[in-house]
Design a protein that fits this description.
about 80% helix, about 200 residues
Length: about 200
């Protein structure tokens, strides 16, 4: 008995995936507009991408709304923490640029490395919360910490993706930012799936 080969993808499948991710990005940005809902929006988008990559289909609008509602309250502390960290980084870089604090270019470089590491960790946490259906930021944070230590390549890869996204956000037209958001979530999941899952052996 012969087994049918999987259907070969063509340009129409690629175009459909691209449009789906663009729609996801616009939905993410709209859901995050009240600011305090940003954590829930990111969690819901991450869960949707996880479903799409796992099953090949997107969750229904009803499932997305249910996930978004469940993630609203747990996402508020995450959003506030992210805003606080971002504000501290901006203040630090501004002070260094003005010469208000000692250090100059070397400290700017150190700050950039620390920010990239923090972005990588946050990106892994976004992927992990998506794997739980958009719930459990605390558990996702713990799992992300272990993953970053056990899989430094994953930490570096997601950090690089996050840094590129931040750079592109500053460069592209504001209208394209929502599209970038959808692609960014998909890229983080793709990097997490492609990098080796082997644990790093401590010497």
């Amino acid at each position: 008995m012969s087994v049918d080969a999987p259907a070969r993808r063509d340009w129409r499948d690629t175009a459909r995936d691209a449009s789906d991710l663009a729609v996801l990005g616009f939905a993410l940005v709209l859901a995050a507009l009240p600011v305090l809902t940003a954590g829930a929006a990111v969690a819901c988008a991450s869960a949707a991408v996880h479903d799409w990559l796992t099953t090949g289909t997107w969750p229904s609008a009803r499932d997305n709304l249910r996930r978004y509602g469940r993630a609203l309250l747990p996402g508020v502390p995450v959003t506030l923490l992210a805003l606080a960290v971002a504000a501290l980084v901006v203040l630090d870089l501004s002070a260094l640029a003005r010469g208000a604090v000692p250090g100059g270019p070397p400290m700017v470089l150190v700050t950039a490395v620390v920010v990239a590491a923090a972005l990588g960790y946050a990106a892994v946490a976004v992927v992990e919360v998506g794997r739980t259906g958009g719930r459990g930021w605390r558990a996702a944070a713990r799992t992300a910490a272990r993953s970053c230590l056990d899989r430094p390549a994953l930490w570096a890869g997601t950090g690089a993706v996050a840094a590129v996204v931040v750079l592109l956000t500053a460069l592209v037209h504001p209208v394209a930012v929502p599209v970038l958001a959808g692609y960014a979530v998909a890229a983080l999941h793709a990097v997490s799936r492609r990098l080796p899952a082997t644990r790093w052996e401590h010497p």
